[in-house]
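__Record contents__

***
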Amino acid sequence: MEELLIPKKWYHPLPAMQLTERPDVAGSYLMEGHVLLIVDNTPSVLVLPCSIFRFTQSVEDYYKNPVVGNYFRLVRLACIPISLFLLPLFLLISLYEPTLAGQIGLIRAGESSPFQTILFVLLVELGLDLFRYSSAHTPDRFAGTLSIVGGLIAGDVAISMNWASTEAIFYAAITMLATLSLASVEFGEGIRIYRLFLIVLTAIAGQLGLIAGTVLVMVSVATTPTFAGESYLWPLFPCNKKALYNIIFRRPTSTAQPERQWRRMG
């Protein structure tokens, strides 16, 4: 349904609609003026129109104290650049600034050649994806144990056989944790495609490749199509300061009822 309603180009990996299986979330969006698309024989509800800032929110934010909810929402916001840029920056510094990399502990001086470093990053990135998808198709009672034990064994063997470095596995693991912290699985998978794109460009052209790739990613995000031609960057563009504040920060329930909140923004 999403592909039929909102046709996208191949260079738009981010979701154009938000999916939810929670009645409370769907009801909240409905009261804010969104459209809900319910398809027979599926528990998922499509919410439209959608913007990138919607994926920084989680229902748990509203079931906690406002201070706690705001803290975890800001952590979730920080996880987006960490997931997107940590591995490309590690690769850039390791390849083109080996002295700096050794000083700050990114790599041990003279341990790996540039080709090995690129290979390490790509293998670890693909390996973590393999563990993630294999655990997703494993029965729940075995999934957690399989991921932890399998990751420890495979990581130790890969280092022993010189198929990966300790540093590459460490930064890839942080990247994976940041990706899993995002509220939407579909959004996290789109970020993963962007990250692989940045890794390849950084390996080919270094700093220039990372800068050019970042610009292309930003253009791709900004031009992602949404329902009824709405901006994917709303409320940042076009700018709506009140709406942006209410999306980034979780307000107390007594002052953030949808019928009051959005009327003041109109």
Q: What stands out?
A: Residues 260-266 have pLDDT under 50 and may be disordered. The CA atoms of residues 197 and 213 lie 7 Å apart. DSSP finds ten helices and three strands in the chain.
